[in-house]
Fold these 2 entries.
Entry 1:
Amino acid sequence: MKTLKLIQSDPYLQPFAEAINGRYLYAVNREKELTNGAKLSDWANGYMFYGLHKVNKQWVLREWAPNATAIYLVGDCNNWQKDEAYRLQPRENGVWEVTLADDMLKHEQLYKLLVEWQGGCGERIPSYARRVVQDPVTKLFAAQVWEPVEVKTEKLKVKGAKRRKAGDPLFIYECHIGMSSEEEKVNSYEEFRLDVLPRIAKLGYNCLQIMAIQEHPYYGSFGYHVSNFFAVSSRCGTPEELKRLIADAHAYGMDVIMDIVHSHAVKNELEGLGNFDGTPYQYFHDGARREHPAWDSLCFNYGKNEVLHFLLSNCKFWMDEYDFDGFRFDGVTSMIYKSHGLGEDFVDYSCYYNLNQDGDAICYLTLANKLIHEVKKNAITIAEEMSGMPGLACPIKDGGMGFDYRLAMGIPDFWIKYIKEVRDEDWKAGHIFYEMTNRRQDEKTISYAESHDQALVGDKTIIFRLCDADMYWHFEKGHSTYMVDRGIALHKMIRLITASTINGGYLNFMGNEFGHPEWIDFPRQGNGWSHKYARRQWSLVDNENYFFSCLNLFDEKMVHLLREHLAPVKDKKYGVHLPWDEKLWDNEGDQVMAFQRGDLVFVFNWNGVKSFEGYGIPVPEGKYKVVLNTDAKEFAGFGLSDDNVEHFTMPDDGYLKKGKGWLQLYLPARSAVVLQKID
């Protein structure tokens, strides 16, 4: 076989060529076996066959339960009693089916399956149920017949809004619908659409990443203990309301991706897939591998054809039915290692090819990426993966798994460590730049300073680490302290260098852009089931008397600037990519560094006590103007520089041949400035 491009591009992978080739061929052969030569997107149609459907004015319900001896539909339609008229009949390959007259089920009726097996029985929610609701009194979940009268709504039209082109940088706004209200409640899709979505559009983000869409019994799981994979979380509203939210986001020019959980499933039997047909291994591994040792959940058996069909159909369903533009795959590290990555130190390449990998999981992810891009050519797939496995975000044909991006999970860890453990005077400007740009050039990444993980109870946001309790008492304009001034300055600088050095995209979690002052703590027994900390206080950012508004404005200006100037380029080796970062200057003694990207020059002075006048930076000869300054008063800075002054390079014989000269700048302490070459 021809040497795969992944191996060609990295000589250190040559010793592992056999393993890489083996994974590639296994995925190719599994696809042929599953589809019999057809397209994956034509095969992964389980949601069109299984579940409850209206066909020729009749109801048809199908379920896969190979160990069952009898199955009945029970619900409001038959007083929750076994009824032969609602009995499913066995078909081939463990499939059960029942056809019901139109009047035997009605819109909004509740139902379940009563599954019987040798030696037992239990009520179960159909595996392909599209609507699952919780009784407010009993707290029990049940499937709901959902056949509403179609209501046509006027499509939102936003003047000047344009969708992202292939290769354009992603600016992702990560959000949780339920906690997006200022009120102490679970917010709705509709309220988010009307109240929050315009905020995101104004900030300039071109991609919305929505968490907790798949139904989950425990709200406090943040959506990561999924019970019903095809059901929209009913806490936040109806399927139609979610569809309208997505349509409006598209109208604003945003892609919409879903935080999809295929890495594990909730253990619940009454709500989920656990012990569905009386066997523990229908969807999951048997024995020791069945339960995740750290997550209190069940692990899918990706080697079973039926499981692949279920999960791949799930990917296609969300794109086909709701018009999602792609997915952020949760827990990829847990999937691809038999150890789930727990206790592993990934110190060299041998750690990725030592037989500790789950070949079936790797195959599933490869097929999922192929399927998703068959359904939507410009779809977005992002892997939450922390081990750094080579090829994760490389094309399948090159020997990779086919993800478009991988999360740069080392960056938020770096910021936490730096803020906690390193004194301000010891911050190394060059080291910071290295950490922001340390990645495989042939794999696109999503950089972020913090996500929802850093905002949860048990951790702290960056602004909270920097300002601590002073946020509560000294965030009003005119009443700041040194701690607040320092925190605000670093909050902007950290975001700017993280966002400006991206190799694909940048992510921000809802509210972190303006320095939301409180952690996230979902309703639970330990806090009296309170929603006080599971919300976002938008009134803070809307109040011009507080610094929150200044941070929000900075984020808006930053995102718009980077979107405008980081236009993709193309070359033979790397194809379409963002302009490379070129380091221009690095003085560790001064704590000053600078780099160029496209027509922008970024200069950072991390020094907390020293400002520099007439500081020289070698840049391409020409005239420059300031386009962003973290120290501007409108961003809660001190406004020590006149940003209206145009800057001209000074010649230097040593740089003439390189076409460079010295740009002499005033650099206030703990600030960053972005300049654009205009001539």
Entry 2:
Amino acid sequence: MFTDQDIESFLHGNDPEEFIVAIEYDYRENCVYKIKEIPGKGKEIRKDTFTPFAWVGDLRELNFYGGSKAAQKEAMTKHGITIDKLETHGNDRLQRGMTFMVKSLKGYRELIQFFREGGCDPWGDKTKDKVMILPPVEQYLISKEKRLFKGFENYEEVTRMVYDLETTALEPQHGRIFMIGIKTNKGYHRVIECMDESEERNAIIEFFKVINELKPSIIGGYNSANFDWHWIFERCRILGIDPKKICKSLHPDHSFTRKDSMLKLANEVENFTQTSIWGYNVIDIIHAVRRAQAINSSIKAAGLKYITQFINAEAPDRVYIDHTDIGPFYAKKEDFWLNIQNGKYKKVGVDSKIDEACGKRTDVYNKITGDKLVEMYLDDDLDETLKVDQEFNQGSFLLAAMIPTTYERVSTMGTATLWKMLMLAWSHKHGLAIPAKESKTDFVGGLSRLLKVGYSKNVLKLDFSSLYPSIQLVHDVFPDCDVTGAMKGMLSYFRNTRIKYKQLAEEFYTTDRKKSESYGNKQLPIKIFINSMFGALSAPQVYAWGDMYMGEQITCTGRQYLRQMIKFFMSKGYVPLVMDTDGVNFSKPEGVEDRVYIGKGLNWKVKEGKEYRGDDADVAEFNDIFMRGAMGLDCDGTWKSCINLARKNYATLEHEGKIKLNYSYGEKYIFNGNRNRSW
């Protein structure tokens, strides 16, 4: 068994090199370029080399080199090939898997050519479970044990640029760009305006010039993959601009590429076009929100306005303009009264009484032209995009610092693939074979039931802390093909790290709110990642270490814990309302606030000798009696009352007076007691 220090050193890369923000591979020179952002100095680019490799299983049935050992040996000499036998430790799935590592001392292209000359397409349907060749950047990070972003404490330290377009139509064939907004997390802000096509042409050129001057490590937009980049390159085509000439990358011989890609979302995928600029990380920030939405049912939509409100990042004077009004407001340049306190506006000249009243309240109302109003709207969009990026891509940043792949891929790949990359890196480091994949089968999942319809008061939501990974650790539910115990070691490390961050967030909550929030942001993506191991186990078609029997054992145990929780709290007078996989909503009994329980310290969530009161007393008692090791029950919130209509369809009255409707495809407040945005 490995120590937490062993796991930590592996995850963060044993190589000490810092400040790498991107890796690019040059097929012609057979080398990699390390792009570094040195604090206080800017960008630095350095060359490096590595030995490319492939995992290989039994190729005999593919008639490799016509079955001729002599022909294969001759090809090995020609392409600089060496072959190593990998460890299986007598495990059946490892013995049936990829048990050899093929390396080429002459480079990545020679490695590929070795297989193709032998009649084997490394990425063909017949060979996909017999040969595995990772992209060269991932091979470099694995073999050199390097990781991106080492040396950066948090996401805010990396230079990030966001941008947004305002257009006169939804499609570039029917309109044009009239405004480009650019902002960085380091204080740079600029709006490029263009009144006609000639100015639009210059604006697009200027946009790429700004990128070249700023040289941010990360370039992001909101819904930019399928909208903003599409607009930019299509308008270049219409205006006769060669984008390869104006898109200055960090290498004089390389520009940009665009290719079809997929965003992995639980059991679904979304197609998009990935724009890549050499030396930069180009991301679409909505992808991070969509991934969070796929695993967090409380996130009901992915629009920028909604998600900004969801994370409570909306400025009180935020300007909203309906998308149908943006173009006309800019073009007509009519006058508006702007309420500088709440961002609301009214057109001048519509009502003389309003004009008179607003004219007298210069401390509240500013007269502003439509084009300036649109600029303020664009500026607010940029501010919110940066905030959402900071909130939701903090997780991708932390994962990219541990997983040997590009930041662009971390931002879009599924969690099963993320775990796969970790285990591939571990197997490479320890000379282990890759297990044979299992077939995917169905099994019974978690419990989800509506137990009481109608009105209930004094509602308490209880859920288990990371139920499935906790079950794995407590009951040792891991596949036997993980012969070194890496999965358990990594899961335990991630869990301990998350607990440490949560404790630090609580410790600094009253003394240093910013530091507290920073630790809180760090623990959240770790929570999401450890919870995703169950999904990886249940996806053997992606994750070679997947084990459907283990997945079924986890969900079965989870259902038992859920029933145990319901039985205990019903004995205390609670009424169960809704149960969903890892939690239950209860109606609290009368007099619960008078209850007292002295903690015995038998569970990590309960302090010995501490006095717990109210429903906290019942939760602490449950944890002392039933929870062991990593297991633990938490209170996830309370409501004054709720009305349950159907499963995942209910209304809640919150303590501060807010009324929220929750339904299977969304949520909204119909009364917000704390918010007054009246004109």
